[in-house]
Design a protein that fits this description.
The chain is an alpha+beta fold. The chain has a single domain, classed as Gcn5-related N-acetyltransferase (GNAT) (Aminopeptidase), CATH 3.40.630.30. The protein has six helices and nine strands. Strand 4, helix 3 and strand 5 form a beta-alpha-beta unit. It is globular. The structure holds coenzyme A. The site of coenzyme A has 15 residues, from strand 4, helix 3 and helix 4.
Amino acid sequence: MYSIVSERPSDGQIIENLYADAFGPGRHARTAERLRQNNAPVADLCFVAEEDGALAGSVRFWPIKAGATSGLLLGPLAVQPHRQRNGLGVALMEAGLSRASDQGAAFVLLVGDEPYYRRAGFVHAEAGRFNMPGPVEADRLLVRELSDEGAKAAGVVAVNALVLA
Ligand SMILES: CC(C)(COP(=O)(O)OP(=O)(O)OC[C@H]1O[C@@H](n2cnc3c(N)ncnc32)[C@H](O)[C@@H]1OP(=O)(O)O)[C@@H](O)C(=O)NCCC(=O)NCCS
């Protein structure tokens, strides 16, 4: 059985190795990465899955804004290959989404496969609604609205410097 717990500083290197194995060297060139550069994940929205005393998966959320509306970017999400298909990925996302909702987050964006992320309530972002800081395949930009404010979020997507200040 696994458990979902908050990420600890000592998890950092294992998580970096997990991401490197899951996404390869090209991961830093992706458009979503531009929203992680000069940014920092929200500490209490970073979760890891533990199974048999080992780190089995990780998710992080980053402060962004769309137009004037504050929101979050989800990712990376990764689960160790031999621990996959056991519900950890969805459980990690739900832990973060639940706390983000409790904290009043308006919306969560991500770039990924809709057939997977629909399991956590994500839907395709309407064409033209969000202006990302680089190319994104239209059917991979997904959103989950967490409030009425989030339902109206739109415009240029950027790092939310107010949260970092
Ligand atoms: C995607 C990932 C996080 C899923 O983790 P997981 O713990 O296996 O996910 P869950 O157990 O919650 O869900 C597994 C289900 O999702 C499905 N699934 C996984 N990736 C999928 C995808 N890209 N598209 C559609 N379905 C997918 C699995 O086939 C499985 O289906 P089943 O329930 O019918 O057997 C994991 O496969 C992973 O780390 N992949 C490499 C990194 C990655 O691609 N991250 C996502 C970036 S877009």
